[in-house]
Amino acid sequence: xxxxxxxxxxxxxxxxxxxxxxxxxxxxxxxxxxxxxxxxxxxxxxxxxxxxxxxxxxxxxxxxxxxxxxxxxxxxxxxxxxxxxxxxxxxxxxxxxxxxxxxxxxxxxxxxxxxxxxxxxxxxxxxxxxxxxxxxxxxxxxxxxxxxxxxxxxxxxxxxxxxxxxxxxxxxxxxxxxxxxxxxxxxxxxxxxxxxxxxxxxxxxxxxxxxxxxxxxxxxxxxxxxxxxxxxxxxxxxxxxxxxxxxxxxxxxxxxxxxxxxxxxxxxxxxxxxxxxxxxxxxxxxxxxxxxxxxxxxxxxxxxxxxxxxxxxxxxxxxxxxxxxxxxxxxxxxxxxxxxxxxxxxxxxxxxxxxxxxxxxxxxxxxxxxxxxxxxxxxxxxxxxxxxxxxxxxxxxxxxxxxxxxxxxxxxxxxxxxxxxxxxxxxxxxxxxxxxxxxxxxxxxxxxxxxxxxxxxxxxxx
Length: 462
What we know:
It is a single chain. By secondary structure, the chain is an alpha/beta fold. 35% of the residues lie in helices and 12% in strands. It has helices at residues 5-15, 59-71, 82-94, 109-118, 141-150, 171-180, 213-216, 242-247, 252-262, 269-303, 326-335, 358-368, 392-396, 435-444, 457-461, and strands spanning 75-79, 100-104, 121-125, 129-130, 135-136, 156-160, 184-188, 208-211, 224-228, 319-322, 342-343, 347-350, 401-403, 452-454. The strands form 4 sheets. A 7-stranded mixed beta sheet has the order 1-9-8-7-6-2-3, sandwiched between helices. Strand 11 (342-343) and strand 12 form a beta hairpin.
């Protein structure tokens, strides 16, 4: 593969056989496991030949720039702490402590943790319920417009697209609404790293976006990207200025500053090199392989009950089986050696990628053919939003008591009650646990009922 600046720099330095009187402690020698032995050769620390993720101006930044170009964005930063690190960094860039944020209620738990860490106040944006499909639909730009008119103080919107079920929102339309109100659009696109290689560049409409390379591309766990749209002249300080927030544009230095807040000061060079190679592979041959995957998924959708474009705009490579008894179907598939990403009471979610070929799809179809036919039964919509009693920060960092869910009615939650995956809270920190939420969790088969963290009543009274 060509044009891999970081990978090439690490290989060249390793080939020079430097005397490694620095960390990591393996010193480039084989790791004590056959499957891992070769990784150590390229696993360096911050040195002039290897560069520094949080300083820039080296082979790392050159590799990041190639990713930004591939996504039609202005800037890209490598993340070795997954999309969680990216969501926290994006919100740190877009917001100030105490700010109100228009947050997609279907956000991953990492966004809810970011609310507490950054002391942000959520104003929740609910998604429409698609009763026939049994999932939430795309974010409605009109709902965002109405919310911003009602709360002109809100200057950051954070949404998820695609969702775990592959539902896509209209990012250009949402960006236009945000632009009209001077707001920053943050997109958690963790499950959409492959979409640009299928010709979908909607993510480029976002001001800040996060994707997990490891979720849908041939890249190792925790490897992800933080991306910024637009461009402007870098200022003296990496901390975004009021002008930066008003213009909705962020520099490479600002991305580095924000990601360094929660990222390791010793990021993995193996993960960063893998990101460099991953992009080169996708541009050389992976994109064509992904198009074949999308065609195979389209064939699955025609043959089996599933979410389709008739339900909502979908990721063309995500396959969501609709079935009666999703958990039982998942267990039967796993007994056959086929391991889906997740299941709920009426769906089983599969993540085919460019790494899956005809052999893998044939094996999947053979396993699906063993399931009892039956469409998804009526699936319950999420319950109404619970009452907010404390801010996310107050709740998450308060003292806590532990109760079974059945005895927690009326108490204020000190955690996310979020079936994982997909990690979307039914009750968020600071919200009161109500009868309807408990009933919903019972209905969907939530299996962590015996240890629910709640805020002591004395804290709520005070």
